[in-house]
Amino acid sequence: MAAAPPPVRAPLRFLLNGEPVAVTGIAPQTTLLEYLREHRRLTGTKEGCAEGDCGACTVVLAEPGDGGTPLRWRPVNACIRLLPSVAGRAVFTVESLAPAAGGLHPVQRALVDAHGSQCGFCTSGFAMSLFGLYKNAHRPPRAAIEDALAGNLCRCTGYRPIVAAAQAMYDIDPADGGGGWRGPGVAADGSRAVSRDEEALAVQLAALAAPDTLLYEADDRRWWAPRTCEALAAILVAHPAARIVAGATDVGLWITKQQRDLGDLVYTGDVGELARVRETPSHLAIGAAVALSDAFAALAASWPELAEAWARFASVPIRNSGTLGGNVANGSPIGDSLPVLLALGATVVLRRGAATREVPLEDFYVGYRQTVLAPSEFVVEVRVPARPPGTLVRAYKVSKRYDQDISAVFACLALVVAGGRIAAARIGCGGVAATPKRAAATEAALAGRAWDDATADAAARVLAAEFAPIDDMRASAAYRRTVLANLLRRFRMETGGAATPTRVEQVVAE
Ligand SMILES: Cc1cc2nc3c(=O)[nH]c(=O)nc-3n(C[C@H](O)[C@H](O)[C@H](O)COP(=O)(O)OP(=O)(O)OC[C@H]3O[C@@H](n4cnc5c(N)ncnc54)[C@H](O)[C@@H]3O)c2cc1C
Ligand code: FES
Ligand code: FES
User: Fold this and answer.
1) Ligand 3 site: residues with CB under 6 angstroms?
2) Which residue out of 123, 128, 130, 162 has the highest number of ligand 3 atoms within 8 Å of its CB and is therefore the one to mutate?
3) Which of 292, 308, 502, 509 is such that its CA lies 20 to 30 A from the CA of 352?
4) What is the pLDDT of residue 2?
5) Cα 304–284–298 angle (5° rounding)?
6) Spatial contact of 15 and 91, defined as CB atoms under 8 Å apart
7) What's the CA gap between 236 and 378, in Å, rounded?
8) pLDDT tens-digit readout, 381-435
9) Burial code of 86-102, b = ≥16 C-beta within 10 A, e = fewer?
10) Closest Cα to atom 4, ligand 3: which residue?
11) Mapping DSSP to helix (H, G, I), strand (E, B) and coil, where does residue 59 land?
12) Beta bridge partners of 45
């Protein structure tokens, strides 16, 4: 293994509402929200749930772009985002939206005009989610607006006026809201609209970027932010007790809800190799630190049938911070990407020091929240094989709410059908066992058979008996078994040409 350059001890440097800051002396596991409210008195950003669920704490990050654009604008939840993870980025809070010269930003003006606020507690979060949409889309369809707002809760106004504000904000002259970086991010013809201010911001961010591993130390705790896999591997070997943090959408709750001291932390979000998606003739390789938003977009390009499942995974701000590697490594039996990745035949590439290994995802989990990861080992990437011709695939999330809810059951079914017969079957299931699991007996009941109603019904009966799920507050064991079997029948209806509507949206549209 080539020697990685030693970490550079430094403050956390980032832009806050356009101003450079250099933070020292604040513990690495401090959340961005705590920093904004307690240390900077930027109290427009609210704390509702402190667990990523309500959106009251939404801020927008501008991050260095991926080549196509100088900056990426991303709403995130400040309550579970760890402060050191914004180093090298620009943080915008609601206080920065209105131009200093006075007046309101188009997002704010539209909210006022549409009566989109009553008590106002949720409003700054909505304004920032809308600002994120304003930077990323021009007059999006209603479904995209609903998606952008699915992570924001309002208890008194109701969503109709807020959606109306989202539709109206594009009608307001951006110059009235100050223009510059505050202006729209997408032009009417769909091209990126990049102002001079944004280019200047990108230059400022480039100057802030740490050249090598950043080591930030405060309160007797360390935060390493390596920039290469070599450096990450070396730090983890030298400090096996240090905990890996990616988007902190799981880890953040251990701090805010369990008040745990997480010790020394190693951040993967600045490791270039882990943050990219590569397409090869045989597979799609998604780096462990790729944000869920980007990972899902890459998967949806080859597997458009999965789009609904991805839209129902948390919310835009969570998908902007959370990573695919985090979902895989966290190993929750109700992690929503895992049944899909199992059904698609994914493998995970792991690395410890200079040694790498590739493990089929079904062999990665060895017990409840237990994986084969050895001390100092980390997930490098997830590999999803290229789509075989003749593949039928669907993913189903069963939860109490449509948006932003935890699965009671999740199933992804993938069949390769040739000449009317099932050449290969893979079924990934979540919420029915201690780990995400393949339904091996059901797959065997399908393989080699004709893909017809009789086969589907026989296989559904096998699936109903394949797992021994538990009763809990989300669903009973009997419900889980029944719904799982019915998902297979639904899959048959959807792929077998039945005209019966099977999705809520179809029924609503009718
Ligand atoms: C409001 C809310 C809604 C959510 N909704 C959903 C949902 O609908 N479906 C769902 O599945 N999940 C959901 N989650 C959970 C969470 O968003 C996902 O599990 C996410 O993918 C975690 O990624 P992360 O980058 O934030 O991981 P982190 O929190 O940073 O890390 C999670 C774990 O993975 C480990 N880890 C991270 N990267 C690596 C790596 N490269 N190598 C080894 N270990 C690593 C960490 O050490 C930690 O143990 C939700 C969370 C919140 C707060
Ligand atoms: S405070 Fe509720 S999402 Fe952050
Ligand atoms: S205006 Fe009161 S919670 Fe939304």
Assistant:
1) 117-123, 154-157
2) 123
3) 292
4) 58
5) 40
6) yes
7) 8
8) 999 999 999 999 999 999 999 888 999 999 999 999 999 999 999 999 999 999 9
9) bbbbbbbbbbbbbbeee
10) 154
11) strand
12) none
Give all strands of the β-sheet with 421-430 in edge-to-edge order.
391-398, 409-418, 421-430, 437-438
Whether the CB-CB separation of 347 and 356 falls below 8 Å is answered with no
Whether CATH 3.30.70.270 fits 388-500: no
pLDDT at position 490: 96
Residue 353: band (very low, low, confident or very high) from pLDDT cuts 50, 70, 90: very high
Q: Is residue 14 over pLDDT 90?
A: yes
Express each pLDDT in 319-341 by its tens digit: 999 999 999 999 999 999 999 99
Q: Is the pLDDT of residue 118 over 70?
A: yes
Query: 64 - beta bridge partners?
Result: 71
Report d(CA 158, CA 466) in Å as an integer: 43
Q: If you measure from the C-alpha of residue 76 to the centroid of ligand 2, how many angstroms do you get, rounded to a whole number?
A: 10
Tell me the C-alpha distance between 230 and 352, whole Å. Answer: 10
- Please determine whether the domains at 13-207 and 388-500 fall in the same fold group of CATH: no
Rounded-to-integer distance, Cα 49 and Cα 36, Å: 16
Other C-beta atoms closer than 10 Å to the C-beta of 30 total 19
What proportions of the chain, in percent to the nearest 5, are helix, strand and coil?
Answer: 35, 25, 40
Q: Which pLDDT band holds residue 1 (cuts at 50, 70, 90)?
A: low
Classify 304 in phi/psi space as left (phi over 0), alpha (psi -120 to 50) or beta: alpha
- Ligand found nearest the CA of 46: 2
Structural domain spans, the chain? 13-207, 388-500
Mean pLDDT of 21-33: 98
Backbone dihedral region of 219: left (phi > 0), alpha (psi from -120 to 50 degrees) or beta? left
First-to-final CA distance of the chain: 60
- 139: which DSSP letter? S
- 3-state SS track over 404-436: CCCCCEEEEEEEEEECCEEEEEEEEEECCCCCC
Instruction: Check residue 183 and report its DSSP letter.
Output: S
Topology adopted by domain 13-207: Ubiquitin-like (UB roll) (3.10.20)
